[in-house]
Structures are given as structure tokens and as C-alpha cells.
């Protein structure tokens, strides 16, 4: 299983709404993520908007491609894009995995 961690930056003035939206992720989006191979997926956010995402998957590139092929993801990304700083494109395209330097099983 591949462990993936990434950083993004939510605009501080949009943070509360971002949290509200993620408290009510659409059921079809949740299902699409699961079907695409996104497991144990968590998002953490600091008060200044720094977002840390973590997921486990067999193949991150394949999981991203599977999500990119869904209509629900296109709708979700279009709605989420205005929340982020420093992105040229969709949020899911701005997720650059961090290099894992230690893991304790």
C-alpha cells in the first residue's frame, strides 16, 4: 500500500466554509473516491489555511486518473478551486506528494 501525503493552502478567509463543505461531502464523491482506490483518506487544516492531506492507495497515479474520469470529481473540483491559494488549475491537480522519510508500522 502506498502512503501519500500532500500540502495545499486554503485561503484563510474561506477556511470556515471549506470546513463546512467537507463536513458534508457528497455521497457520490465519497463513493467515487472509494471506488477509485482512495483509502484511509484524511484532510487536516491549520488555522492559517495550511492543508495536509493523507491517503493510502495501491497506485496514486492510477487513483488520480480514476477520479479524473468521473463527472462528480469535475463538479467537486470546480466548486473547491476558489478556496485555494497559489493553484494554476484544479485542486486535485495541485496535489504534489511529499517524500516519506520515516514510517513506524
TrEMBL record:
Note the Pfam families from the entry: rhaM
Phylogenetic lineage = Bacteria, Bacillati, Actinomycetota, Actinomycetes, Streptosporangiales
Matching SUPFAM superfamilies: Dimeric alpha+beta barrel
Which organism does this sequence originate in?
Answer: Streptomonospora halophila
Could you tell me the superkingdom of the organism this chain comes from? Bacteria
InterPro entries on file: Dimeric_a/b-barrel (IPR011008), Rham/fucose_mutarotase (IPR008000)
| Protein name per Swiss-Prot or TrEMBL | L-rhamnose mutarotase
Q: Which PANTHER family match?
A: L-RHAMNOSE MUTAROTASE
